[in-house]
Specification:
By secondary structure, the protein is mainly alpha-helical. It has nine helices and no strands.
Length: about 230
Amino acid sequence: MKQLHSKDILFLIVVLVPFLGMAHDVSSADQELLRNGGLWAYIQVGATHMLTGYDHLLFLTGVIFYLNSFVDILKFITVFTIGHCITLIGATYAGITADEHLVDAVIAISVLYKGFENLGGFEKWGVQSPNLLVMVGIFGLIHGFGLSTRLQSFDMGEDQVLAKILCFNLGVEAGQVLALIPIVFIITLARKHPQFRAFYKAVNWYLVLAGIGLFIYQLYGYFHGH
């Protein structure tokens, strides 16, 4: 496999950061849709938000790469889903929020972490990797908090607040399922290919670089927004 040189890494980061930065931006069009579309609009925006939530999908891709059976995939995705449902619903309803750039910086670390783990980074450092199921649950809580900060950036009004939160969460789950179907399909097909190992390394290096790029981007946004 071709080794990544410093120029290649710099190029990838420069290319990736602008696209990663667009993940789940809150647009005036979304706000207008939520204002006029009722509860169904919250489902729609939630699904769209997840489908364009590149950091969430990159992390899930890394998790799926690590697993070999459908049962394991279902188990880990369920744990992740429970985690982000808890913080998405709970934090939004309780009005708990944080700077979105800092939350997204931690989410970026989760992407970097998964790529690093998949590449055997812990073993190379002589350290035992943490329990993956526990880490997926913890990162699920963090990802859910990130979704909550986005939802709270909308003006949800005073009526049916809990119903709106639940509908947004339902949309997120629907978007996650729609996104996972092609991801699981592609990885399953790739496992049967003789070049899967090279593909595995390339994608997980991509996760590492994307995590670094997004982390830098979010810290830049945080320090230049204060």
